[in-house]
Structures are given as C-alpha cells and as structure tokens.
C-alpha cells in the first residue's frame, strides 16, 4: 500500500490557499500528521479520501488517481475514513447503522453482510452497545462506531481525524494492524500534546499492545 502526493495545491474561492506544493509519500504502517488549526490537515485528508478535488498536482493511492472519476471508486473500496465531525443517523441502533453501511459497501447477501457486521463489531469493541441507538452513545463510542464501517476484513487504508481526544489507547494502537487487514493508517491531530499521547501508547510499559517499532512515524513536527 502506498500513497503518493506530488505538487499538491488546493485553493478555495476567494484565493484562500489551504495547500501549496505538497510532496509526500506514505507507505505501509502507522503515520501521524501534526498541524495547527488552519494548517490544511482536513483539506489534505479530504483530497486523499476522494471527497475534494485538488487545484493542482496529483495524488495516487495504490496506483489509482483520486481525481479520476473511474479510478477513485477503486480507492473507496479499500478506504476507511473517520472525519472529525460524524454524520450518523441518531435514530438507528449501532447494528442497524453497520448493516446499512455494509449494504453501501455492496454486501447484498444477508449472511455475508451479517458476518461483516459481526466482524467490525468485535474489532471496534461495540459488542455491549449493538442494540443501543447511536444518538444515545457517548462521544468515545461514537468514534468507535465511525471507525467500524469498513470494507470486509478491514480497510487496507485508514484515515482518522482528531484521534486522541476520544479514542482510547487500545483503539489508537489498533488503527493499523495486519490482523484486521489494515496496511496503512494516517492519524491527524493538532498539537504536540496529542503527539505525546500517541508516543506514550507505544513506549515500553505504555498502554498500547503494539511494540515501539510499530510507533507512528510523524509526517509533520
């Protein structure tokens, strides 16, 4: 899995430039993207997730161009994206929401869809709230629910905004793990305090089960 960014620029109406000439390569593993408010982190992730077109430059995910109308659908099939603001359906239960997302992922056979839902429930630690309405969940549980919807077997590529405020260390440490099929994970946070939390998770004696060698590599400092 690789993400290649070449001379990426994004300018919004009114001449507001969010990104200018960004060059970056992201390979297999867990990566942390650190930047202050207004630094262009969300804009970058939205482009990587095929939700926003760049003004200039090129981005490929596993060789697929995210700006190409046909190729971006191949990217969507391997992608899991958790934005800062979640667009849930508050009246649905957790299991109903996951079943709905599985249908959108082209899992139309009832048994196949049920197995996929069961898998993501276990991965995200949602067993205790599967029948609970999403609108009644805590902020942390909603974040877990946002991580859960993914292609069967887990997304090969995962983007997560604002990982530290509401995700516990086990969830942060498990964003990228071969056991669930995720090869590359990019977590986005705002400041050095967030970075210290990530690093603490991966130090010997820290709270995560992952090893120090699997600690996130920082794309911005």
What does this structure look like?
The chain has 221 residues and is α/β, with parallel strands linked by helices. It contains 7 helices and 9 strands. Strand 1 (3-12) and strand 2 form a beta hairpin. Helix 3 (94-104) packs across helix 4 (110-124). 36% of the residues are buried.
Question: Which labels suit this protein?
Answer:
single chain, 221 residues, 5-stranded parallel β-sheet, 7 helices
Report helical residue fraction: 25-40%
Q: Roughly what fraction of the amino acids lie in strands?
A: 15-25%
What is the element string, with H for helices and E for strands? EEEHEEHEHHHEHEHE
Class from secondary-structure proportions: alpha/beta
What is the distance, rounded to the nearest whole angstrom, between the alpha carbons of the first and last residues?
23 Å
Enumerate how many helices there are, as a single number: 7
Which whole number gives the mean pLDDT? 75
Please provide the count of β strands: 9
Sheet with the most strands? 5 strands, parallel
* Radius of gyration over C-alpha positions, nearest whole angstrom: 17 Å
Q: Uncertain spans, ≥5 residues at pLDDT below 50?
A: 172-180, 201-216
Strand order of the largest sheet: 6-7-8-3-9
Shape: globular
């Amino acid at each position: 899995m690789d993400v290649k960014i070449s001379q990426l620029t994004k300018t919004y109406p009114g001449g507001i430039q969010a990104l200018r000439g960004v060059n970056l390569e992201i390979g297999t593993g867990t990566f942390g993207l650190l930047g202050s408010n207004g630094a262009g982190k969300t804009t970058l992730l939205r482009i990587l997730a095929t939700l926003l077109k760049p003004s200039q430059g090129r981005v490929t995910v596993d060789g697929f161009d995210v700006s190409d109308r046909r190729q971006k659908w191949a990217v969507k099939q391997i992608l899991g994206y958790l934005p800062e603001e979640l667009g849930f359906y508050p009246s649905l239960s957790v299991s109903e929401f996951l079943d709905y997302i599985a249908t959108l992922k082209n899992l139309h056979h009832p048994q196949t869809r049920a197995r996929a839902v069961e898998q993501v429930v276990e991965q995200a630690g949602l067993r205790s709230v599967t029948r609970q309405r999403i609108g009644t969940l805590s902020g942390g549980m909603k974040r877990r629910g946002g991580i859960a919807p993914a292609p069967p077997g887990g997304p090969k590529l995962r983007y997560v905004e604002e990982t530290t405020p509401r995700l516990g260390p086990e969830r942060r440490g498990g964003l990228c793990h071969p056991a669930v099929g995720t090869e590359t994970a990019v977590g986005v946070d705002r400041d050095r305090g967030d970075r210290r939390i990530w690093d603490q998770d991966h130090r010997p004696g820290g709270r995560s089960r992952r090893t120090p060698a699997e600690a996130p590599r920082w794309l911005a400092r």
